[in-house]
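The following block was generated as part of the benchmark described in Methods. Ligand: 2-phosphoglycolic acid.
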Amino acid sequence: MTPTSIAGEAHKLERGTMSSNESLPGTSPERMPVDVFSDSEAAARAAARHLAEAIVANTATGRKTVLGLATGSTPLGVYQELIRLHREEGLSFRDVISFNLDEYYPINPAELQSYQRFMRENLFDHLDIPAKQVHVPSGTVAEADVAQHCRDYEAAIAAAGGIDIQILGIGRTGHIGFNEPGSARDSRTRLITLDRVTRADAASDFFGEENVPRRAVTMGVGTILASKKVLLLAFGEHKAPVIARAVEGPVTPSVAASFLQEHADARVLLDEAAAHELTRFKCPWTIGTVDWTPATSRRAVLWLARKLDRPILKLTDEDYNEHGMQDLLARHGNAEPINVEVFRSM
Ligand code: PGA
């Protein structure tokens, strides 16, 4: 797709279709591959396909496939599709080994919010994966033994040959797994303290923020980066700001997901709502040619006024020229008629 066809109001995708940043010009500020799907179901099916293809290819050559799995609402569609592939298309998980990213600490695996329970109910109970090939960090190990448990978890991943494909969600703090802001690039599986934002986001699951555990055991950023392939999924408008920071911002421990920019095979799979704050959707005129429909012009002028914190009627030719809106200016001769037109339309 060209930048024109994904820009402005025209970026709405047909159901099930996808636009990728691979054909964006060199000026794109996106620092890793991003696929935007018309809805989360299409993105989930694409992620499931990545996993299924790896499983089929490895099984055919007698190799096990090591999957890194995530919990939360984001991967549910992927798991539903994997279950469908197992039931309807005979995809077998007998040669799959799985490692989950994280678990609350402390938590009993029988509890409603336990990630062990989540994985059983939403995936493992519906597949033919042998129980001994499934790994979720423990939320019940004694505190004195947690560090050893974490070392053992890392050792088990290594003994399995490392993770082939890691599925990730992202928290509003930018966390992957429970690697909250401040997590180092080389961090490994460990006990961490949850961020306030994360605990607030988990409050409804626990019927009140005061019931959310303060800590969790999580694979580290370094553990995740050691996976051969990484798929980060994010759906919904509430994820759009952190996705923009992770994909277009600097690599920083303040946004753990930004470290994925340094991974050789990491992809981001989004629905349109989660992609909304990326430059190619938010202000595509700053990175390429756009189709200047009245709706796009209006959106661009409002964006410019907000960005410069200036009334629409005070926007100058220079403002337009400096913000990728030269084409629009050229069509109208100067800023005034555009300003007036947009102002009147409000
Ligand atoms: P969610 O959580 O999938 O429930 O949005 C994602 C995360 O916090 O990693």
